[in-house]
Amino acid sequence: MEDSIEVILQDYSNVLPTSSAHPLVSACTGVVLTGLYGVWSLFSLPGFRKIPLNLKVPYLPSSKVQTLNTMKLLEGRTGRLADLGSGDGRLVFAASSAGFRCTGFEINSILVSYARNKAHWKGVPSSQATFVKKDFWKIDLSPYNNVTAFLAPGVMEVLGEKLLKELPDDARVIACRFPFPDWPQQSSAGSGLDQTFAYDISNVRSHLRKLSNTVCVE
Q1: Which of 64, 121, 157, 180 has a Cα-to-Cα distance from 14 of 20 to 30 A?
Q2: Residue 173 pairs with which residues in a beta bridge?
Q3: Rg from Cα positions in the chain
C-alpha cells in the first residue's frame, strides 16, 4: 500500500519545486496530495478489513499492454474464466469479447458497481461477463478452466496452493507481472512491468510431483 502512495508522490516530484517554496504553494501542494491520497484510498481500501493482513493487495489496474499480453496467452482456449481481483473489469471485458464466459471477483464495492455499469453501457450480457463482490480466497474455483490474476508477490505462493487444490487438470493460469514461485512456465508474453506468465495446471502438478519424489529418494 505504501508503494502505491510513493508512486503518486513520485509522479508529482517533477513538478514540485525542490527548493524552499512559498507557504501558500506548500499549502496548496498539501491539499493536492491529500486529495490524491483520498481518491486512491477510495478505490483501494473498501473491503480491506475483511481480508487477512497477509493477503491484502491494493488496487492497481492492468495496463493496455498487459491486458493484450494476457489475451495472447489465452489464445486457442475457451470456457469459463475467473479474474481474481477484477478491479474496473478491463480484463474481464477483453476476455468476454474473445468468447470466454467470465466472472470477475472483487471486494471493492465501488469498482464492482463501476464494472457492472460499464457492462450495462457496453451491452455485455451477464452470461458473458459477471462481476461479484466476493472474496475469491473463500470461493471454490473448481468450475473454472481459466484463471487470471494481477496481485502481489507476497500472495502468489498462497494463491498457488489454493489453485492446485481446486482447479481441474486442464486449467490454465495467467499471472500478470508477478510469477508463481517454483511453478514451471508454459510460456510468457511481454517484458518488464507488462510481462505475463502462463501455467498449465497439469504440467505444474507433474513438475511438483517429480520434485517431491526426488526429495524422497535423496
Answers
A1: 64
A2: 147, 199
A3: 20
Residue 67: HSE in the Cβ half-sphere, 13 Å Cα cutoff: 19
Instruction: Name beta bridge partners: 80.
Output: 101
Average pLDDT, the chain: 82
Please give the pLDDT value at position 135: 94
Residue 202: enclosing H or E segment and its boundaries?
Answer: helix 201-217
C-alpha cell at 10: 513520485
pLDDT band with cut points at 50, 70 and 90 for residue 214: confident
User: Which has more confidence, 156 or 58?
Assistant: 156
Contacts 24+ apart (CB under 8 A), 151-158: 151/57, 151/84, 151/85, 151/178, 152/57, 152/178, 153/178, 154/54, 155/54, 155/55, 155/57, 156/180, 156/181, 157/181, 158/54, 158/55
Secondary structure (3-state) at 113: helix
3-state secondary structure (DSSP) of residue 45? coil
Length of the chain: 218
Cell of 89: 473489469
Sheet with 172-176, strands from edge to edge, namely 129-132, 101-105, 80-84, 146-149, 172-176, 196-200, 187-189
Residue 170 is placed in which grid cell? Answer: 486442464
Q: What are phi and psi of 131, to 5 degrees?
A: -120, 125
* Amino acid at site 40: W
